[in-house]
Design brief:
Number of helices: 23
Structural class: alpha/beta
CATH topology of one domain: de novo design (two linked rop proteins)
CATH architecture of one domain: Up-down Bundle
Largest sheet: 17 strands, mixed
Number of strands: 24
CATH class of one domain: Mainly Alpha
Shape: elongated
Strand content: 5-15%
Radius of gyration: 53 Å
Helix content: 40-55%
Length: about 850
């Protein structure tokens, strides 16, 4: 029987065609991997969704659809993809005719071959006749007889499939699968890259905690309450204005406490509502929530410092967007060219004519139609993906994403100090805004120093009660009630309840606010602010202005000096400690010192290049001026001439090389202290004759080598300090000061004490320790009023018996000499105590027993009287 074209039942790639499609898909998925397992490759932490804008989400869904399309295409290709080929008959008949003619020609050559062919033909004919008679009753098949069997069809179909079918028709599903994997892999790669994912994870964690923090809820609630309060005040203000207008003018007795434009800029208005205690309508913040909120403030501060200085995340996301756009363009241009090349029919030419009998075949690709439609769908999805890519690229580069402003948040809330951010911090907030702007608004509360101060104030007031504050109150040397608070977050409100407190010392407290309640501290007279920037409300300022007498300010930054201190009109003493530049007048506001009408004492422990000229505003009533300059040379001392009422002047560490002439214009000066300067000569001391009121002169810790004879001009001197100099000798004129009672010559190089020392009949205190004295003049013991005599650490060999004439002596220092014994006449010094008698024990034992008992008995009597 002849062979006809038969449809094969199996393919070269997989199961039977009759098997249901969903079973084939399930079989394929079980053999490789599930869709869920593959999608997990693109999965990210659920909380990262706040950093995924709508275009990233949309591109993810498009990627998933393209992935499913690739899976369906692969499944259909594996189960159904094949070629069905038939030989082209025109070419086959011609070849057969040629082959027949060749055979006839060959048969004609030999008679035997011809006869054999005739016999064979006759036999075949007889067989056909018999076979035809057998199947005469059955229908005959129509078509062209190709003389192919099933194996030949399978062979030629497979050969043509692998040789003439284009690669894009065979690998189209794999191509779109690879493209989809690339797009899905690069879609949110910035969430997985180590250098960006660490910062993103930290940011998302902090952002979520800030959003859910009880402090956020409380701050938002308070802001809403303040807004409603402001609206009420506006309404009441409008009503009162209308009422005043109807009455013809403003109400009587209304006046502002602000009397200076500068004061208006530094004093908080009293009309501004003060935060009250939490009510039932406001959420209450417990201690645990407060500690968590404090930790969040610290985390936000450190994260901002870590991220804001760099723009790596922004650049990485921009590069990722550019890469996705470039990938889309290349994929689309490559894939779209295949659309017109996927054909249903193909011509297959083979070189297996000897086996098959035909050289050219016509083949049909059964999946060409489906692949063509799927490719159209894939290109449509790619175009949509590309449009979203172009939009995201436009968004990335259209605006300043490295700058983020909280201007609207500042306008809507009471925290006007929320700073703008930049670089990666700003970019992350821009991304969050694409999800929900409420996140950034709540996060902004933890960037505000005012918000942090309020939180600390609440926590501080919860921690401090009246009993705790009362226990911290002590009595100082002046028997005043004193409270010293250090390293707190703020000033507890309970301090204002200490009505009897007289001295308040605040040290290293970053936020100090004197509210209206400070008026309850009626006993407060002295205030110390050590590195404490302080703010005061208008009513509180009025109280401090009228009651505060002494103010001490220490600072590390000029901005920490409260400007309002220069308007305390009843201030008697002002101390400023810190580092000031040459433009001190502008930075500190000393030009407004004219309002300090009652200032008597001014102490400036600063690095001043020159004495401020505006200090003359208080020169008429200033009594004491102290300038400690920490080794910086001080100029501009001519301003001292206007301080006619000055009685006490201290110029420490000002690098003075001589006594300034301006000092001798201070006719009322009583005490002059020039400690720790660079004074080598004091020839100007002749002008002491003009300072008739000068009683104390301190030239210690200098480099003076000679005391001129003109020292005798200081007729009114009662105390002279010359210790820590380089004196080798003393002039006789030094001992002609009739009123001199206190003479300090310690730490010099003096070898001889002149006998004229006996002229100081009013001498009460003489200190000449740490010199090079070998002997003492007997005239020294004529100063019978002497109470303190310090001779320690010299080279004395003996102590004269005349020491017994110092009957009023109550302090004697002899340590560090070369004495061998002590005179028994020390027993005449009835006021000398053992505790005030500084001498080596072995020397003390050289005294007679009765003398030692007298000194010891006196000590016991004194201790008993004390008890």
């Amino acid at each position: 029987m002849a062979n006809y074209i038969v449809q094969p039942q199996t393919t070269a790639h997989g199961p039977k065609i009759g098997e249901p499609l969903f079973k084939q898909i399930s079989s394929f998925q079980s053999e490789m991997f599930t869709v869920t397992e593959f999608v997990s490759l693109n999965d990210i932490h659920p909380t990262y969704r706040i950093l995924k804008p709508w275009w990233d989400v949309f591109m993810e869904y498009l990627s998933v659809v393209m992935f499913m399309l690739a899976l369906v295409s692969m499944t259909m290709q594996i189960t159904k993809d094949q070629l069905a080929c038939l030989p082209i008959m025109e070419e086959s008949e011609e070849n057969n005719a040629k082959r027949g003619m060749q055979q006839v020609a060959a048969a004609m050559d030999t008679k035997n071959l011809l006869e054999r062919a005739v016999d064979n033909f006759q036999a075949q004919y007889d067989d056909n006749q018999r076979e035809g008679e057998k199947y005469s009753n059955q229908p005959q098949a129509s078509g062209i007889n190709t003389n192919f069997d099933l194996q030949q069809y399978v062979f030629i179909n497979q050969m043509c499939y692998y040789h003439i079918l284009p690669w894009y028709s065979k690998f189209f599903p794999y191509l779109i699968l690879i493209n989809t994997v690339v797009l899905m892999g690069t879609g949110n790669f910035w969430f997985k890259f180590p250098k960006t994912s660490s910062k993103i994870e930290h940011f998302v964690s902090i952002l979520g905690r800030c959003f859910e923090s009880p402090w956020t809820t409380k701050a938002v609630s308070e802001t809403a309450c303040e807004e409603s309060e402001k609206n009420k005040q506006k309404l009441s203000g409008t009503a009162s204005a209308q009422q005043n207008a109807s009455l013809g003018g403003p109400g009587e007795g209304t006046s502002s406490i602000l009397t200076s434009p500068m004061l208006e800029s530094v004093v908080v208005s009293a009309d501004k509502p003060i935060a009250e205690a939490p009510t039932a309508s406001m959420p209450i913040l417990d201690k645990k929530d407060g500690e968590q909120a404090k930790a969040l403030f610290e985390k936000v501060r450190k994260f901002r410092a870590h991220v804001e200085d760099d723009d790596f995340i922004y650049r990485f996301y921009a590069a990722q967007t550019i890469f996705k756009t470039a990938t889309f363009i290349s994929m689309l241009s490559c894939t779209s060219s295949f659309l017109v090349k996927i054909n249903f029919t193909h011509i297959c030419e083979t070189n297996v004519t000897v086996l098959i009998g035909y050289r050219k075949f016509l083949c049909t690709h059964n999946m060409a139609f489906m692949f063509d439609k799927m490719l159209i769908c894939y290109i449509a999805l790619m175009i949509m993906y590309g449009m979203v890519c172009f939009y995201s690229l436009f968004w990335v580069f259209r605006g300043p994403l490295k700058e983020y402003s909280f201007e609207k948040v500042r306008e809507e809330s009471s925290f006007s100090d929320i700073p703008d951010v930049k670089n990666d911090f700003a970019f992350l907030l821009h991304m969050v805004d694409q999800y929900d702007q409420l996140y950034a608004k709540r996060f902004a509360l933890f960037l505000s120093e005012v918000s942090e101060s309020k939180l600390r104030e609440i926590s501080l007031n919860q921690e401090w009660n009246f009993e705790k504050a009362k226990k911290c109150v002590t009595r100082n040397a002046q028997d005043q009630q004193e409270l010293h608070l250090k390293n707190l977050f703020g000033l507890p409100n309970v301090v204002f309840d200490l009505t009897d407190l007289e001295v308040l010392k605040l040290e290293k407290i970053p936020e100090v606010r004197f509210t209206t309640n400070v008026s309850q501290m009626t006993g407060l007279r002295e205030l110390h602010l050590y590195e404490c920037p302080a703010k005061v409300e208008q009513t509180g300022f009025a109280f401090l202005r009228d009651h505060l007498n002494s103010l001490h300010i220490s600072f590390t930054d000029v901005a920490e000096i409260p400007t309002w201190v220069f308007f305390l009109r009843n201030l008697r003493q002002l101390t400023i400690i810190g580092n000031l530049s040459s433009d001190i007048n502008r930075m500190v506001g000393l030009e407004s010192m004219r309002d300090l009408r009652h200032l008597k004492t001014l102490c400036l422990k600063c690095n001043l290049p020159k004495l401020p000229t505006n200090i003359t505003d208080v020169s008429q009533h200033l009594v004491k001026l102290m300038v400690h300059n920490d080794g910086i040379k001080l100029f501009g001392l001519n301003a001292l001439k206007k301080m006619t009422n000055l009685r006490d002047l201290e110029l420490h560490s000002c690098e003075l090389e001589k006594i300034p002439h301006a000092i001798f214009s201070l006719l009322n000066l009583q005490e002059l202290d020039l400690k720790s300067n660079n004074i080598r000569t004091i020839e100007e001391i002749v002008s002491l004759q003009h300072l008739k009121s000068l009683t104390c002169l301190k030239l210690w810790h200098n480099k003076i080598t000679v005391i001129p004879s003109s020292i005798s001009q200081g007729k009114s001197l009662e105390a002279l300090h010359l210790s820590h100099n380089k004196l080798q000798s003393l002039p006789p004129a030094l001992f002609k000061l009739p009123k001199l009672q206190y003479l300090d010559l310690a730490y010099n190089l003096i070898q001889v004490l002149p006998p004229e020392v006996g002229l100081l009949l009013n001498m009460l205190h003489l200190d000449i320790t740490y010199n090079k004295l070998e002997t003492l003049p007997n005239n020294l013991f004529k100063c019978t009023k002497m109470r303190v005599l310090c001779l320690g650490h010299n080279d004395l060999m003996e102590l004269s018996e005349a020491v017994g004439e110092l009957v009023h002596l109550n302090h004697l220092e002899l340590k560090g000499n070369s004495l061998e014994k002590l005179p028994a006449q020390l027993g005449n010094c009835r006021r000398l105590r053992r505790s005030e008698f500084q001498v080596e024990d072995h020397l003390y034992m050289t005294l007679p027993v009765e003398v030692r008992e007298s000194i010891s008995r006196d000590s016991k009597m004194d201790s008993t009287s004390v008890l």
